[in-house]
């Protein structure tokens, strides 16, 4: 349990302190946005892998019994999360998290200013019902709270960086967009394809748990 708590703390701090301490801005200025995002993504994946491994090896403390309906929650919610994640990362978004630079947001901002954060929030909340043990609830609850807290925080940072008038213009649902419905549809199809691969193969391959048998057994 100590290793899990340590891994969770390190993961959350690694996604909080760089921006707060100004390290992110200094590194981006020194090595560029692209290399920074690549290195930061590798670090995030490594920390997430450690966190998941520590969670799987932590003592199991049951909080509720499995029920058939619980498995349907992530299976129904995750297509939405995948679409938001792929569209959010693939399209420029000066208002929030994105892998693409650009001063004009993509069409996904017409849906939400923070598609990536909403994707993680949906992912975390959807995985609570079928994982009724203490470690899982702490893990997914912390991730959900982290994603939810990031929404007003990123709004505040974007307002300071862009200025109130510019922020309101870009955040408006009918404001300027760097891409239209075609790009959004393509991102949605990419997200659904990623979901299909993950639920049929990726989840078992990467996490060691096949989500599809849950439908017949009532839980993971």
Please describe what this structure looks like.
With 220 residues, the chain is mainly α. It folds into two domains: 1-59; 62-217, no CATH class. The protein has ten helices and no strands. Residues 216-220 have low confidence and may be disordered.
Q: How would you concisely characterize the structure shown here?
A:
The protein is mainly alpha-helical and 220 residues long. The protein contains ten helices and no strands. 70% of the residues lie in helices and 0% in strands.
Can you lay out the helices and strands and say which pair or pack?
Elements: H1 2-14, H2 17-20, H3 23-31, H4 33-57, H5 68-90, H6 115-126, H7 134-162, H8 164-171, H9 181-207, H10 214-217
Relevant terms:
about 220 residues, disordered C terminus, about 0% strand, mainly alpha, 10 helices
Mean pLDDT: 88
What is the number of helical segments per DSSP (H or I, 4+ residues)? 10
Catalogue the unreliable spans.
216-220
Q: Roughly what percent helix?
A: over 70%
Report the C-alpha radius of gyration, rounded.
18 Å
Strand content: under 5%
Tally of individual domains: 2
Structural class: mainly alpha
Broad shape: globular
Instruction: Provide the succession of SSEs.
Output: HHHHHHHHHH
Summarize the biggest pleated sheet. Answer: none
């Amino acid at each position: 349990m100590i290793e899990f708590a340590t891994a969770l703390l390190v993961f959350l701090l690694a996604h909080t302190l760089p921006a707060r301490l100004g390290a992110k801005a200094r590194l981006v200025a020194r090595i560029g946005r692209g290399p920074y995002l690549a290195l930061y993504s590798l670090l995030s994946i490594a920390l997430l892998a450690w966190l998941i491994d520590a969670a799987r090896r932590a003592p199991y403390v049951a909080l509720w019994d499995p029920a058939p309906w619980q498995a349907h929650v992530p299976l129904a919610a995750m297509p939405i999360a995948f679409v938001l994640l792929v569209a959010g990362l693939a399209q420029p978004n000066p208002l929030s998290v994105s892998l693409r630079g650009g001063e004009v947001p993509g069409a996904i901002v017409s849906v939400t200013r923070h598609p990536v954060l909403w994707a993680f929030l949906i992912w975390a909340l959807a995985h609570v019902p079928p994982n009724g043990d203490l470690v899982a609830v702490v893990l997914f609850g912390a991730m959900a709270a982290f994603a939810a807290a990031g929404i007003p925080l990123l709004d505040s940072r974007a307002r300071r960086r862009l200025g109130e008038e510019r922020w309101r213009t870009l955040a408006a649902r009918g404001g300027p967009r760097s891409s239209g419905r075609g790009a959004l549809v393509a991102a949605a199809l990419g997200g659904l394809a990623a979901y299909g691969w993950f639920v049929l193969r990726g989840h078992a391959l990467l996490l060691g748990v096949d989500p599809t048998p849950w439908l017949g057994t009532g839980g993971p």
